[in-house]
Each structure stands twice: as structure tokens, then as C-alpha cells.
Amino acid sequence: MTSLPQNPSRVKLGLVIDLDICVGCHACAVNCKEWNTSGKMAPLTDIDPYGGKPDGVWFNRIHTYEAVDEVAGTSRTVHFPRSCLHCDDAPCVTVCPTGASYKREEDGIVLINTDICIGCKLCSWACPYGAREYDEDEGVMKKCTLCVDKIYNENLPPESRVPACVSTCPAGARSFGDLGDPDSDVSKLVAARDGYALMPEQGTKPVNRYLPPRPKKVGDAVAPRLLEHHDDSNDGAGLLARWVDKVLSA
Amino acid sequence: MNANPFATVKENVDLSPEVADEVKNTTCYMCACRCGIRVHLKNGKVRYIEGNPDHPVNQGVLCGKGSAGIMQQYSPAKLKKPLLRTGERGSGEFKEIEWNEALELATKWLGDVRAKDPGKLAFFTGRDQSQSFTGWWATQYGAHNFAAHGGFCSVNMAAGGLYTLGGAFWEFGEPDWDLTKYFMLFGVAEDHDSNPIKIGLGKLKTRGEAKFVAVNPSRNGYNAIADEWVGVRPGTDGLFVFAIIHELLRAEKIDFASLARYSNAPWLVIDEPGKPDHGLFLRDAKGNPLVWDLHKKKAINAMGPDADAAPAFAGARTVKKRNVVPSFQHLAARYLSDEFSPDAVADTIGVPADTIRRIAAEIAHVAFEEEVVIEQPWVDAWGRKHDKMIGRPVSFHAMRGISAHSNGFHTCRALHILQALLGSVDVPGGWRYKAPFPKPIPPGVRPAGPAANPGEPLGGPPLGFIKSPDDLIVDEAGAPQRIDKAYSWEHPLSLHGMMHMVLHNAANADPYKVDVLFMYMANMAWNSSMNVPGTLDYFTAKDDNGDYKIPKIIYSDAFWSETVPYCDLILPDTTYLERWDCISMLDRPISSAHGAGDSIRQPILKPEGDVRPFQDVLIDLGHRLGLPGMTKDDGSATYPGGYVDYMANHERGAGSGIGPLAGWRGKDGTEQGRGAPNPDQIDRYIENGCFWTQHLSDEQLYFKPFNRSYLDHATAMGWIGHADPIVFQLYNEDLQKFRLAAQGHGDKQPPEAHRERIETYFDPLPIWYMPFEEAEVDTQQYPLHALSQRPMHMYHSWGSQNAWLRQITSANKLHMHVDTAAQFGIDDDDWVWIESRHGRVKGQVKLITGVNPQTVWTWNAIGKRKGAWNLSEDAPESNKGFLLNHIISEVLAPGKNGQRYSNSDPVTGQAAWFDLRVNITKCAPAEAGFTEPMFEAFPREPHADPIPPISRYGADLKGAPTGKKAEAKPWVGNRHENATNIAGLKDGKGNRTKGDAS
Description:
heterodimer, A: 250 residues, alpha+beta, Alpha-Beta Plaits, 3-stranded mixed beta sheet, two-stranded antiparallel ribbon, elongated, B: 998 residues, alpha/beta, Dimethylsulfoxide Reductase, domain 2, Barwin-like endoglucanases, 7-stranded mixed beta sheet, 6-stranded mixed barrel, 26 helices, 37 strands
């Protein structure tokens, strides 16, 4: 219903999220809310903020869960931040009946023009990633803007011109840049770390990339698995006797 | 032509809206981490808070708590005016009063006590970041009953380190994140050092060289990203460390050269059991300890320049007609014993012996085969030049998980000793001190006992370091003189006091009654106390006359917390954005291993209510009371400008040139550390982003305890009293002095009731014993360990009323291993009774696999009391959230003589939160769905704003368009570390690359 850009630029701004070092601290989610509640889609309304069912608009949510491999008998704990992936074939855009949901031609950021959003929620049904947030109070859909009002903002110092979730991440697990340019720093990072698109089978061509956990260093092959003992007595008497006259500090 | 009638309507996106009218720097206080923040203000409100990129603590990042500062600032739970209790304690009935009335009343109460018996004031300041000031205030008042919250937080960690290495983790030191190759994290969930640890782990893992091992019963948080998770059973970390030491000793993987130079391992210990100096170091006429030189075949001064040439590490000898052995002989004999072999301890720890052996081998390999060398000459304390800095790149960090057990002190010491044995203390790739540490072992300040006379100051600061029984604060009979029984024979090394015992002791007049209890920022009627139901009784207990046993309680808090309704006079505090504060080198500064630093908070906003910063109030009260230091001879106020006046002009000791802030001292602001007060000092701090840092020179960066240049610098700066080398005390003679006293030696004798306990736990070398509660209960009846920890988005914060953070967590569940749950017949989401020997609490279960199977755990301080924090009555916090505090007893089972000790470490008095043992049973169907015990709801704060049904915060702060557009630059997280591994990726930081113009 709404078209994707006819002549998209090659620039595809997006996020790279490193699952090897994300500790699940929620800094990205809260800093995002903090910036954006006065940002392009202000406010990020909170319903019943001090009550029984506090429920607000968040553009970024962190899920912590256990991935259990029953065959291998192993499990690991995963911290997984989830937000809009700014897909190339964004179904949330093409499904939109009013043109409110759109993808920017110049940088690929998927936005919502809340002035013409009718709150029909078709986009949230269409998004396979659950990345849309309905603001019940205003009756419109809201979502990650990739901090479009921050990354280009001349009123901020250069080091702040980056999505809030990225600059605030304490672990340095988030990167931002042009994933349409294979020579960009973020593309090099993705290539080096085998970054992947989330659920590519959905065919939406997400721009954002996730970096998988690095292989765990368990049982370092370089180190011996056992130290060679120099005494087999049960109280170490042999060693102590040997040390009596030995210059050990040399 | 676009044929689609619904073609995109081009939105004119405003890419460069105005953001702020003003940006101000200050220091965050959403937890204890002390990050630098930039606060963007618009229309007099907070538009955005971000990390200050120039700040040494957080380097631009900001965590979830700090990012939620806006909601703290605009919380409807904030107090608005001084309150005077009108109903019964706990009723929540108050009347609002004016500040003058409140201060006059407080002055009367405090003045009466001071005139009569200042020991009847108990002044405990909770989560206080101004302890060098509040402690000084207590000194001037004559209040020896002073402490903050360290006793129930992590004093084991501080004491274990300060009595071994002269430093410890967090404020005292940090891993060498950039160079370490093997990093072990013990018992940490989130941490005090919140952002620095996240930054460090991110760098370390991105660098890709290091292995990260997490030793923790739970695999959440940081532990999830470790290369290896070692899921130990709670309270057994000490055995794990001993087993590693056992393996290293057996393989002779010990840095003997380092021990010879920098530790007391070769010092000769008198070995004559029964003698009054048995177990003490043999000393020469000048008091120097001695070592046996194998070449010279005689004993020589251990502090001399040649002491490390050929010292004996083992062997009984006779020196000066005394039988002696090197202290290392004791250490080695103990840990070489089969008792501590991996096979012997594996079952107790819950970790396979092979895993322990492999980890020991890995540590040894990294320490001794993968040295880190920095081509940087340095000169040691004896004047010897070294042409490079050689490091053993193994590092550790530990915190509450090992600290909050009744065996925590010895475990913490064991961990520090392990570092020393590896030669990894303050070396490249190891663990490093932060200024003003290292300090002499222990630091030289002794705690002051009661004031000599009413109306006089204490003889010194109320908190300090004990070196022998002579330093205890006890009466002639050996009975405690402090209300919390700190520094008594019950807990001699309680360096941070024992705030967790104050209400219990005061209500029971044990050791005596107090007249006024004065507290700040400590939720003692809820999550900061063990045994909450009992503690509420202590607040409200009355004597036969119908008077409260604790007659008067003054409390300062910024919020309508669970504790406010239990107090009599409420002095409403400001938020952190409305106050002056200083994070001082006299207290716990913001230094890093690279150099010293301190910082300030400045008021960013005017308080909304009629509230005042607690520190300003204390200065005011100090003057009203006529306290020395706060009152001039003519009766006028010494600091009429309040706390900020004190920050700039106070000197610790007249004319010392040392004050609360170390930067820009001297009349012209050119001096650091020492210098006359500078009238423009605060302005200089503000100009610099509200912090000061001083980088150490390259030759001072490592080996600080014995680095001549560093020691001279630290002395000049006033961090240490003299520039003598600081020698690691593996074998601790001060502890032995207590044991000797218990064996009947010396004038200061423990009362009989405590004799055996002192002898047992004051071992000069670390010991392991079963945590007290585990030893006392029937472990069949209470088969599981129960732990609580705070989530990263709330650690150390007053966060549960925060509208954003509570959306992430508003009710806690009990995490339980799936296999254990199956044995107990429990399914996911079942409601269960969690029962200890002390009581039971009800909560809901969440099944997981990443937890030690004998352990259950939950998030702490999520559970709230109905009516508190201005949350509505149906809030999940008060209906589903629960506290384990309710079922932790603050005292142990009665001993042989009926004595009930505090449920704390016997050496330091650290609250043993994590010793809890429980049983879990599924509750009846009718009981499911809500927590119990359910305490009566408080009324809402009498003059609280209505609870808003909706928050549209920020709608009115959207900036006007400017039509401009700046360039968006790529940002790479851990850019520098990534650049070292990825060809072509530009080096730099974030979106700044090397070679950029700026």
C-alpha cells in the first residue's frame, strides 16, 4: 500500500549489536527512552507508571533467556537487545494504508509520520520482529527512529551525534554506521565477526546485524591441563624440606 | 510517475531540533559508581542525561540507572517538607512543619544528648557518599556511635584487602583491563564499580587475548558472557582458592622472587607455642622484622636492600636464641595439606576436581609463561633501578558474593594472597591500586572511643583500623562501648561499623539504651535490615511507661520510603541533581589505576519542594549546636555558605593544606593535593566538568607499593604518611595478637564468653569454615542456599519507584534449577513458601539452568511495602514482590553460654546475608498469586501529589526545528580493541578516529 523508496540511496544506516559482550544491563533501552521521549516521536508515553500494570512505549527492549541444547546437555544465558532492524523490504511500510510508515530514501531509516498514522496497527502485525510500539494514549504507532534527530543534530557535540543506545552502551556492544557500504567500519566489523541478519527467512532484508558470541575459551589448549606436582606426600613435607636451604628468589 | 495512490507522503523530518537551553555537568548518584554526566536542560526541566565522555569513571557511557535519572527527579514519592510524627510509629501520620521548627527540634534533641552523654546518640548515615564529612561531624559532636552502611555491605572485602595488600577491589583497585590475559570474577552480580566493569569486560573480550572465568553460583549478568562459568556452591569460594593455591604450591608455580622482595613470606616468625610472642615476627632492636639469608647464613633486616637476595622460605632455625620459621613455611604447610587438594574439596564446592586442577594450570601458565613486559624503567623503594616492568597478567575482581558470608573475611584474604603468590599485584596485566591506595597495612588511623567529657569532640575519627586488642572500643570488663558492638571482642575488625545491629541493640538496651537515633538514606525498616518483622518491632517497642524504647528518631531521606513512617522527625533531602556534593580523596574518590581523581556534584535544578540537602542541614545543625569546626570563636558559622563552603574551605587539620577536594588548591589554584584553600576552586571544578584528575607518570604506573617515585609522590600528595615500602602481609601478625590474647597473653583479655571464638577465627593465615547458618541448621530440613542480588538496572539505586526502571522489573521471582525443582515437585511459575529457620515468605518460581543446583536466588529490593514510595496499592512490588530479608535472622542461634552473636562475620561484623538456608514447598492453591507476609499498608505521604495515571514526560520538551543537518559519523564500540584485530578498521574511540582534526 505504501511504497518503499523508488530510488533508494546506497546508504543503509543501521546498528551492529555484539552478543558476545552484551551483559543485559538495559542501559541502551533506558537511554533510548530518555532521548526519544522528547524526540521525534515524543512522548514515549507511560500508562499507569506508578500502578499495577505499568506499561510504556519503548523502542528497544532487552530479553534475557537461556538457550538450552538438550542433545549436548549444555545451556547458555543470552542477553538479546531487540529494536527495529530498518529492513530493506520493510513489510511495516508496504502494509501501511496511509503512507505514515515509510523508509527514508537517503539513509534507509524506517520512520512513522505520526501526523497521518491512523493507529490501525497493521504494521505491528506485519513486522516479524515485534519492533513496533503502539501508543494507546495518542492512538498512533511509534518505533525506533535510529535517533534521526540526534545523529544529524548540529546542536549536539560530535560525539553525541549517534543513536542514544550506541553512545551509552557501557560494554561497547553497539556500533552504528552505513551497512550499505562494504568498506565502512561497521561492514568490516560484521565481516570479521560473521555478523548475521535476524531471521533472514522472513525475507525482509534487515539492515541491522548481530555479532554472535565468540567461541568460549574453555580448557585452553596452550596451557597444560594439569600442573606437574613436585611432591606426592599428603602434607607437602618433601617440598618444605627441599625449600629449607634453597635460594628460591633468584 | 508513481502509480500508487498511497505513495509515501514525504515527511519533513526535523534532523536538527534544538535540544537544550543549557548543558551542565555533574556526578550521577543513581548508584554508587559516581559517573560523570551531562545534563541537558530545557525550560527548566531535564531533557536528557548522558555520560560525560571526558570523565575518567564512565568515559561517556551511562547505565540504565543513570539514564533513568529523569524519573527519579520527577518521582511523585519525593518528600516535600519537614515532617513531625503525630500518630504512632508506623502509622504514617505526620504533620508538615517549617524548617526552622524542624531544625530547632533537632538541635534541642541533639543538644540535650550532647550535654549529658553524647554516647547516647547513634548516628548512622547509610548510603552516604560524604563519609569523610559525616564522620568528621560525628567527631566534632563527640558521637562515637557513628558509621555508614559498609558493615552490611562489603566490609569483608575492604578489610580482607587492607589487612593483606593495603588495598582491595572497587574504590581501592581494578584489573589491568588493557593487558590482563586471565581474568577471574568472583561473586559479582552487578557491582559497585558498575560502568567500569562493563567497560572493562567489553574491552577485554573484544581484545580477544584474555580468558574470562566467572566464579559464581549464578550465571546471570556478567557471568553469562564469561568464557567459563564455575557455578560454586555459596560460601565455598575460600576452599576453591585454597585448592588453587594447593596446586600452585605443589607445582612450585609461585613467584618467589616477588615474594622475597614485596611480601612478608620470608619474615621469621617466632615458633614457641605457649610463649606470649609465639606467632609474632622476630624483630631486631629497631623493630625491624628479620629474614634468614641463605648466603650469609644469618638473620638480616627484612626491610633492608639486600633482604631479597637469598632469604629462606622454609626451615626451622634458631635466631637470637629464639626458635623461628619463615612465615611462608606456615602458609605452605597449611595449603599443601591434602585437606585442600582439589579432590578433597571438590564435592563441597560443587566443582569437579579436574576443573579446579585445570584452572590452576591455566593460571600458572598465563602467570609464568605469558609475561607482559613494558619497556619502562623504574626505581624501587630501595633505590634499585629496573630497566623494564614485567607483569604476570592474571587478575581478579570480587565483591559481595564472597564478602557477605560469615567466612568472608578469610576468603577475601585468601584471594589477595593468591594474587601475591602469583606476583600479579600492581604489575602489568594484574590487579592495580587506585590512589590514595596502597596504604600501610593496615592504614594508620585508629578508631576513637567515647568522648572524654560531654561537649567535647572525640579524640579522633570514630572509624579506623585495629592493630591489636589495645585498639578495641571496650570498657574495663571488655564489654562493647559502641551501640553496634563494633570494635568489640564480638567483631574486633568491624571497620565500617555494624549498622545492621543498631536497631536490635538499641531496642534491647544491649549494651545500652540510646536517646536519639539519627539516620540518613538507609532503608532500615525494609530492605537494609535482616529480619524485617522483628526490626519493625524494634522501631515500635515501648517500655513499661509506654515510651518508645528508642526515644527519638531523626531521619533524612528524599523519598517516602518504608523507613520514613517509623521515624519521628523527617528532614527531607534533595535529589542528586539539586545539591552540592564532593567525592573526596579523604573518602572514596574516583581515582583509577592511572591516577588520582575526585569530583563534585553541583545543583542543576532548584528543589521543587521545601527540601534541603542533608549535608547543608548537618552544617547548619553543627553551627546551631556550637560544634567546634563549624562554629567560630565569636559564635558565627564557620561555613555560612553551607556544604559547598565546607568543600572549598575546610582543612583537615588547621593549615594542613589538605581538604575535601584535591584539585586546584592554593591561592592561585596551581597546587594539587596540598595547598591553601582556593576561593575559585569550585569554579575550576565546574569548568572542568565537575572532576579533577591527575595522571601518574609512566614510571609510577605499576609496582606502587615499592615504587620510589610513586611513594614519594603519594607522600607529597598526603595520601600516605611516609614513603616506606608497603610490604604485603600474607601472614597477618595483627590477627595473631588477638589469638594470643585469647590464649591468655597480655593485659587486654577477651571476656571468657568470647575467648574460644577469638582464638578460632583470628588465625593469622586464611581459614575456611562452614558458614554459620549452614553449620547451625539441619541441612536436610533446609537443603538449599538462598541468595539475593540486585538487577543491573537497579543495583545500589533507590530505584523501585522509578517509572521507567519498574517497567523492566516490578516483581521478583525465585530462580531455581530445573533439576532441583523436579526433585521438589515444583513447576515454572508455581507459588512457593520459602522457609528458613527464622520464618517463611511466599514468592513465585522461575526455572532456569544457569544456577548451582543447591542454590535458589531472587532479585533484592524489588519487593516494596504497600503504600510506600507512592506506588498504588495494586503495584506488583507490594503484591508479588518479596524480600528474603524477612527470613534472615540478624542473630545466630544461642551459643553454649546463651550468647547470641550477630549473624555476621566474626572478624569484621560483615552481615552474612548470603548464609541463608531454606526449604521450598509448593503453597496451597488458595495461597497462590500474592506474597506473604503482607504488612499493613501505609497511608500515602500526607501531602503527596496524586499518582498520575499516565506520564507524557517530554512531550513539551521537543525542540524547535533549525533546518540544519550535520554529518552522521560511524561509531564502532570498543573501536581501539576492534582495530587491533580487524584489518582496515580505523583506530580511535566511538565516532572519533585517529587523525580526525578534533
